[in-house]
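Cross-posted from the bioinformatics board.
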Amino acid sequence: MKKFLTVLALTTALTAPGFAQAKDVTFTTTLTNYGGDGAYLAYYVTDATGAYVGSLWMAGPKSKWYDNLTDWYRATGGNTAEVNGITGASVGAGKTLKISFDLADALFDAGYELHIDASAEDMRNSPSEIVVPLTSEAAGKPVQGRTYIANFQYDM
Amino acid sequence: MHILPKLVLAAIVAAALIAAAKAQSPMTEPAKAPAQSTTGSSATDLPARPDAETVPVRPCQATGQNRPQNSRARHGRYGEQARDMRRAHHRRDGHDGHGWFHRFWDKDSGRERERGERRMRRGPSDQGQGCDQGQGPAPAGMAPPPANGLFKGGSAPKVQQN
């Protein structure tokens, strides 16, 4: 029994710092019934000065439409390497997209903001439709969008 | 009695005209290797054929910025692409036997040109070949997330849409 407890304590001590540095975060985005084709959404992070830090998700597979996600495109120059391996399908009107991440703990309560740019074919572009601070306080609180996004919230 | 020799004469004249026209037709002209000029200053020297040039292949760019500046010059009826389309069409349909007289009676060239113009109006095809396909980055699961310091452990996000 003593041996088991020692091993348990040892494994906990080894794995706990790893867990402390990462956060399981879920983004939930529900779109309005805007009556168009699937919307392209770009999720990305800016720092306290508003400078682009990195992308978290790109809903929309074809890079030829990325220039409609104007703020993201301006920040990245449309570089698809920024969303390599974090790209999925566009999101239909009225649908809900749930994305689960294992994000760096340092991202929260440090002045970072999450932006979501949105666009749909033959409809207006909506840059930074959602801008929310990445803080423990803002987590779990729904935020309304302007054009395509009915509401967005992140939980951790 | 005099009709038969006249018919024969007319047939011979017609055959001679057709043969002369075939000889003049650029489509039936056999491909010749360009003559090497020893002087380099002769007035009969032909400029190098454009299809003999080796054009370097440009790498695909991610954002469709490789579209030519003057797309009319490339895609118009008289542009490079139109020339390539004409050549491909003649190769495919074997128009060489028709000669000069039949060059204006090509039934399907109009249809093909129409198809080509429609394709140009629509823009780059999603299923097309070449660089400007508008194809995007690697989807989630096919490549690791970018090393931007936001993701822990390099695990791809999990997505659910309903």
